[in-house]
Amino acid sequence: VDAVRVYVNSSSENLQYPVLFVVRQQKGVLSWQVPLIFRGLYQRTYNYQEVSRTLCPSEPTPETGPSDQIIFVDVSSMAPFNVAYELLVTRLENFQLETNKAFNFTASPSQPQYFLYKFPQDVDSVIIKVVSDAVYPCSVVSVQDIVCPVYDLDHNVEFNGVYQSMTKQAAITVQRKDFPGEQFFVVFVIKPEDYACGGSVPSSIHGNVNRTWNLQRMKNLQVTIVPSIKKSVYVQAMFFSFLSFLSFYLGSVVVAFVHYISTDMKLTVPFGSVSIAGSGIMTSSHPITASTPEGSSYGAIDESGSSGGHQLSSPERGPPAGSDTDSSVEEESDFDTMPEIESDKNVIRTKVFLYLSDLSRKDRRIVSKKYKIYFWNIITIAVFYALPVIQLVITYQTVVNVTGNQDICYYNFMCAHPLGVLSAFNNILSNVGHMLLGFLFLLIVLRRDILHRRAMEMKDVYTLDYGIPKHFGLFYAMGIALMMEGVLSACYHVCPNYSNFQFDTSFMYMIAGLCMLKLYQTRHPDINASAYSAYASFAVVICLAVLGVVFGKNDMWFWVIFSMIHVLASLALSTQIYYMGRFKIGKFSDLGIFRRAAMVLYTDCIQQCSRPMYMDRMVLLIVGNLVNWSFAIFGLVYRPRDFASYILGIFICNLLLYLAFYIIMKLRSSEKLLPIPLFCIVATAVVWAAALYFFFQTLSSWEETPAESREKNRQCILLGFFDDHDIWHFLSAAALFFSFLVLLTLDDDLDAVRRDKIPVF
User: Fold this and answer.
1) Of the candidates 364, 311, 283, the residue with the CA atom closest to the CA atom of residue 748
2) Which residue ranges does the record annotate as region Disordered (predicted)?
3) Which of 159, 314, 507, 749 has the fewest C-beta atoms lying within 10 Å of its C-beta?
4) 660 Cβ contact partners less than 8 Å away, ≥ 6 residues apart
5) Omega cis (within 30) before 149
6) What pLDDT is recorded for position 751?
């Protein structure tokens, strides 16, 4: 293919009488003026007296064979005086780019460059890699079909094909199927200003409009076109993704089989440790009804228990274990609205030393139903949240494909493998682990739930007041949340950018919140938050996250309000936790609220400052408040742009703090960690450490311009298909799975311990 380049130069700087050049070819016309004028922000103009353009090449046809090109160059000017100009026409020697061969060249705003590339016979996809030693001037790389004219100036380069801005690095994946002629042009344009690439924004009042720029914005570039991966790599990556996580299923089946054998296939062992797929036998508490027999103390110790053990008095028996428990008469309010019960709550929950039997007095069936609401509500939330998200990201991907603007989405373009309409299939595929492991966790919880029910049917559950009460509703909700995190993370990675990052984090908030609720519910089953209040709180957090995305970048007022809400919410939650939900402030219309608050502050913080009534809780809450206040001050001072990650950091730090406190208090209470939960804790720590290492290998950042983000792009590191962030997806899914197993198995050592011997902390 022969290509011709025309160079013109004029010494005239008179903008009123420019020199006009018109080049006529067999299939097109190309024209420009000298001085060539480019426009920027605030109507600033940049004049160039030297212009060089490549003419649309003509390719010999089989019928005619090689022939000479006939080109007409018309030069004219309306100037009333003579204007000197220089015209030079040259033949390009290296117009066609070769595979795996680097080519160096120079370009400027008035001297753009473009080259031809033809697909080899055995290559279906290539990656165009462009590098430069200099960050600025800002440039644009475009891939266009073989059509004349070629759009190679700043004001029209976006009219055709696929394009992306560039500072030091760019990469575009091109597939043979998108070009029927199996060839395309690679166009390189230098922009007159750098603001699009993160450079300084030009002032509207500085600068000389008649200034001639010419050679001041030259940029050296190197382009290399390499073959992309073959279809077999896609198949290998899919097999690797699914088989890696299906191995977790195999491991769970082996553990479940070992547990099945160890229990002699009949669950004849009444107490003892259980595995991750075990049943957790003996969980029901004694139901406490509305009235207490006269002469007995509510929750008093009965010395007449068998085998010399202490047993809580059971005023009335509930219905048999196998009876129907779906009656609408049995509501939680039946236990909370009666004055006697309220009085007992105040007496029991404000004791200095609390045991699990004090906080597991409600009917097991009703409490289980309460926690099952978490499961059904999160399914509803997931459906209503996910459907609009899927529709939106499909629209994003469609816009990218139709317009060709690859600055919309922040991919790792050095390792972005398209499939169908998706631009980065590898980032989507790597989220399959969340869905597979979330479903596996649901199966494990279901098995424990079924075995627990069978064990209860085989025994008189109301004479067995042992172990942590088994309520599985929150575990089911956690499994659904893990699966939805995979779905929404995949949706975010369809087109990752600043506007839809909240899709990737919304269910992370819910996972962290549900884990904290589950940890608290373990030893506070009667006073844990209801599903409605919990999800309402998550909704408030997501609303704040949206407001942070919109207003959190520069608005100081938003950070002041958010920090106040954060601190006040921490104090309010601390009060509820410290007093086990028994701190009542009364009606806001009652002026005595201030007197009561002052009295509580005086008695608990001044009179007993040296020794709080609940020392362990006080230590946890002081540390927790210091951590949260530190987050609030940090946000107020630095105002991070990534507000969604900032909120997620608050959730994760609070969860880790509470989990560490729980484990420390468990060991301090002479409880032990069985091999399975100990293994899960170690696995969680190791996998999280590895996952976070890859997470902090930043491959792109929507906090910067698309061109600056591409400077962070890196090559694939696993199977030639997955990058560092994909490995983060794999490892974080496994880490979350192990984290859930820690919560599921942490207290299995207490299945043979009476509840009036299990401390509350």
Assistant:
1) 283
2) 290-336
3) 159
4) none
5) yes
6) 78
**386, burial (CB in 10 Å: exposed 0-12, middle 13-18, buried 19+):** middle
Rounded CA gap, 160 and 47, in Å?
Answer: 25
Q: What's the DSSP call for residue 413?
A: G
Which of 251, 218, 226, 217 has the alpha carbon at shortest distance from 172? Answer: 226
The number of helices, as runs of H, and strands, as runs of E, in the chain is 16, 18
pLDDT of residue 588: 43
- What are 250-271's pLDDT values in tens digits? 999 998 888 778 765 544 444 4
Do the beta carbons of residue 182 and residue 93 sit within 8 Å? no
The two three-digit tokens of residue 345, written as one number: 């709550």
pTM of the complete model: 0.81
Per-residue pLDDT, 295: 35
- Using CA atoms, how far apart are residues 465 and 310, in angstroms rounded to an integer? 11
User: Could you tell me the end-to-end alpha-carbon distance of the chain, in angstroms, rounded to an integer?
Assistant: 80
Taking only the tens place, the pLDDT of each residue in 5-14 is 999 988 877 7
Is residue 321 scored above 90 in pLDDT?
no
> Which phi and psi (to 5°) does residue 107 adopt?
-140, 160
| Separation of alpha carbons 413 and 164, rounded Å | 10
d(CA 286, CA 297) in angstroms, rounded, equals: 15
Virtual torsion, Cα 674, 675, 679, 685, nearest 10 deg: 40
H or E element in which residue 259 lies: helix 231-262
Task: Check residue 40 and give its pLDDT.
Answer: 82
**Spatial CB neighbours of 223, under 8 Å, sequence gap ≥ 6:** 97, 102, 103, 105, 115, 128, 129, 130, 186, 188
β-sheet bridge partners, residue 559:
none
Task: Assign 100 to helix, strand or coil.
Answer: coil
pLDDT tens for 475-531 read 999 999 999 999 999 999 999 988 888 888 889 999 999 999 998 888 888 777 888
pLDDT > 90 fraction of the chain, expressed in percent and rounded? 33
Structure token digits, residue 149: 């004219």
Q: Is residue 383 within 8 Å of residue 487, measured between CB atoms?
A: no
Amino acid at 94: N
For residues 37 and 15, the answer to whether their CB atoms sit within 8 Å is yes
User: Which tokens hold the place of 117?
Assistant: 């590339």
Least confident of 110-114, 278-282, 459-463, 581-585: 278-282
Average pLDDT of span 53-76: 74
Sole residue written with tokens 């069985």: 674
CA dihedral sign, ordered 677, 655, 703, 548 = positive
| Token couple for 23 | 């080049």
Written as one letter, the residue type at 586 is G
User: Six-digit token pair at 229?
Assistant: 């991966």
Kind and range of the H or E run holding 482: helix 473-494
SS3 324: coil
Tens of pLDDT, residues 691-728:
999 998 888 888 888 999 999 999 999 998 999 999 99
